[in-house]
Amino acid sequence: MHVATHAMVFARTSGEDGDAKGITCFIVPADAPGVKIEEWLWTFNMPTDHPRVSFTDVWLPEDSYWGEVDRGLGLGQSFVHQNRIRQAASSLGAAVYCIEESVKYARARKPFGKPLSDNQAIQWPLVELATQTEMLRLLIRKTAWQMDRMDHKAVERTLSDKVSMCNYWANRLVCEAADRAMQIHGGIGYSRHKPFEHIYRHHRRYRITEGAEEIQMRKVAAFLFGYMGPRKAEFAKAPAA
Ligand SMILES: Cc1cc2nc3c(=O)[nH]c(=O)nc-3n(C[C@H](O)[C@H](O)[C@H](O)COP(=O)(O)OP(=O)(O)OC[C@H]3O[C@@H](n4cnc5c(N)ncnc54)[C@H](O)[C@@H]3O)c2cc1C
Questions:
Q1: How far apart are CA 102 and CA 108, in angstroms?
Q2: Which of 45, 116, 157, 223 could form a disulfide with 201 if both were Cys (CB 3.0 to 4.6 A apart)?
Q3: Is the pLDDT of residue 178 over 90?
Q4: In a domain, 22, yes or no
Q5: Residue 204: inside a domain, yes or no?
Q6: What tens digit of pLDDT does each residue of 153-173 get?
Q7: Is the domain of 21 the same as that of 98?
Q8: What is the CB neighbour count within 10 angstroms for residue 53?
Q9: Closest to 80 measured CA to CA, from 220, 227, 209
Q10: Does ligand 1 lie within 6 Å of residue 1's CB atom?
Q11: Boundaries of domain holding 55
């Protein structure tokens, strides 16, 4: 908000709480009378440009909305997919960095004359993290490749669960990798002379924003159990038990 000229405000214009239909995206000038920045929030990642904003009796011209009235959710979902896979790739890269730096440090650091890397207690957690990064990289690349070959609506209908899988797993993984890197680097790892605490703080927010991890898992569950997605029709045909 410290640089925004306009805010995209998603507000309910019809229906009930929880209905997918009935949300409209309004384009609100940031300096419109009634738009107020109440406070700048301190977050885990230090002071940020994220404020709490209030809207009181804000007047807008009739055509100041984006897309269609009552169809704002689809609009939002068309860009969350792009950002969810982007977050996943970014978290994966940061996780790999934490692992690689830890390997280098563990080989170089020799407390009591013996490299840290000789210890399986140091090796194995990194092995598990490295294994997960390899698997995740493949899923992210495959999903991104598929996304490039379909429009937003098809992504939402057929691929949304895979985007969510990439997102929540990568965002968790980077937090684990940063935490492990801090541990392997000992006291210096906890300091700001190494980037791991910053990586942790930065990527920890991805487990909340752009759909918290529970929301990603909810999407995966909906596809898995056939409440949404390609299996919906299949489950609808199945005879009741
Ligand atoms: C640093 C930062 C930047 C942000 N930037 C933006 C931005 O640019 N644009 C924007 O629109 N928003 C932004 N947000 C807001 C963000 O999108 C929300 O905080 C996020 O979607 C979670 O919503 P909430 O805070 O209302 O939590 P709630 O919806 O109240 O959820 C609280 C907790 O309950 C869990 N939960 C909710 N429903 C369920 C369920 N059915 N089952 C299980 N668990 C559930 C959630 O996963 C979460 O862990 C930002 C937030 C932060 C912290």
A1: 10
A2: 45
A3: yes
A4: yes
A5: yes
A6: 899 999 999 999 999 999 999
A7: no
A8: 16
A9: 209
A10: no
A11: 6-66
Query: 42 CA to middle of ligand 1, Å?
Result: 16
Cα(212) to centroid(ligand 1), Å: 6
pLDDT band at 131 (very low <50, low <70, confident <90, very high): very high
Q: Whose CA is nearest to atom 20 of ligand 1?
A: 209
Residue whose tokens read 């791991």: 196
Ligand 1 near 212 CB (within 6 A): yes
pLDDT at 42: 87
The residue among 35, 50, 66 that closes a domain is 66
Cα(164) to centroid(ligand 1), Å: 15
Residue to substitute in 2, 25, 214 for testing ligand 1 pocket (most ligand atoms within 8 angstroms of CB): 214
Residue 46 has what pLDDT? 74
pLDDT over threshold 80, residue 48: no
Regarding whether 161 and 80 lie in a shared domain, the answer is yes
Alpha carbon nearest to ligand 1 atom 15, residue: 209
236 domain-assigned: no
Which tokens in the block code for residue 220?
């995966």
3-state secondary structure of 102: helix
Same domain, 60 and 111: no
The contacts of residue 85 (CB under 8 Å, 6+ apart) are 140, 143, 144, 147, 163, 166, 167
pTM reported for the whole predicted model: 0.91
| CATH code of 51's domain | 2.40.110.10
- Whichever domain contains 153, its CATH number is 1.20.140.10
Instruction: Specify the number of domains making up the chain.
Output: 2
* Cβ 93 vs Cβ 136: under 8 Å: no
Q: Does residue 38 carry a pLDDT above 80?
A: yes
pLDDT tens readout for residues 191-234: 999 999 999 999 999 999 999 999 999 999 999 999 999 999 88
